[in-house]
Amino acid sequence: MRALFSYLRLNLQWKRQPSKLWLVFMVWIGCLFYVLFQGGKTSVMLFVMVSLLSLYLIGGGFRGVGRAHGQRHLSTAGDQGEMILAGDQVQVRLDVTIPGFLPLPYVIIRETLKRHNGESWSFEESLIPSMRGKGELLFQTPPLERGRYRFYGTECISEDIFGLIENKGQFTAAGEFLVLPRIAFIPNWQMGSRYSRLGGQQTSQLMSRPETNQINGVRDYVYGDRISRIHWSATARTGNWKSKEFEHESLPKTILVLDAIADHYESDAAFELAVSTTASMLDYGVRERMGMGLFTTGQNKGVFLPSDHIGERQRMRLHLVDVVADGKGRLLDQLEDHARMFPAGTLFILITPLMNEKVWEIFQFARIRQMTPLQFLIHPSIEKNKEAVINWSQSAHARGVSCYPISSLEQLPAALGGGAI
């Protein structure tokens, strides 16, 4: 009996006034006394009707939403199986099964989606279950930023047809997914072109890459090309001299250094731009078969040696999902503590909003270890400090360091010489 009252207390909630429970109870007691002391067909009929109503009201707490369960299905707006990128919306389908034989006029479903940093979203929808107690709920999340997301307990709420009793139930339907950083497609990095007109040490190293035996296409004849390089079929077809274009060996190993020190960023949007720039370069490295590594300077440091292995690239992507601008201290000190992971001859790409002497110290650190430094200058408010950014870029080029000012992710392909998206 104690278990009965405990169950009712947890699963039955009376709307508006708690006295309604006592009201129904008193009505039933009154009908019982009416049968005992008055008798007759009318009293018996009234007692039976009130008893059935009471059983219906109380029975909803034992069967129905209290034992509901469901299954969740997630999909993106695009093709099934695609990775979820920041800015995408996730379509959620929740199949709910409510056991029991008592009819329910409607069921309210409440969902809570939480991000790894504590942000949460609440969804509330209603559905009308079928005669078998089955229902399907469809809804769509707002555009999501990068991070780990999880659906917590799903709450079901129903009322009887008279609106007196509110029954509640809760179940957990697995629903966890990752949202990767935004990625800009980089069709070409001008520094990686053999015929780039950019000057400097970086271009000299890339131009010295030896060719392979794999034909990559056809180009116009250049004075001095050997006869063996002439593409006779293309020459005959076009009427102009054409030469064979061979693929070059892969670019030098590259390491991306993502500045994740909190004091260096003026807003969360600036850090998200830095993370998206890093992810875009990783994506470019995968397509170009470049050996890329990653180093992040937050409290949860990421240390990945340059590699072109698919599994290692996936680990880097997952790390960028969780990285937060919570680092402290000097960036140079953290680089010196992990100096062993920076092999000589690599491209050292620093992704940071800094424009001060600390950056020159980092470039000096890279050159001492025979690395080639570059900077991706993250500056979302570039229009407000346009003159300072231009002066910094010119000063960097004068010292032999390529600097790419990035004010938005859409600008990244053009900044690297590959044209707009």
UniProtKB/TrEMBL annotation:
Record-annotated membrane-spanning stretches: 21-37, 43-62
Signal peptide (UniProt feature, chain positions): none
**Which PROSITE patterns is this protein grouped with?**
PROKAR_LIPOPROTEIN
Q: Which residues form the DUF58 domain?
A: 218-314
Recite the UniProt keywords alphabetically: Membrane, Transmembrane, Transmembrane helix
Q: Where on the tree of life does the source sit, at the highest rank? A: Bacteria
InterPro entries from the entry? DUF58 (IPR002881)
Q: Does the keyword Membrane belong to this entry?
A: yes
UniProt protein name: DUF58 domain-containing protein
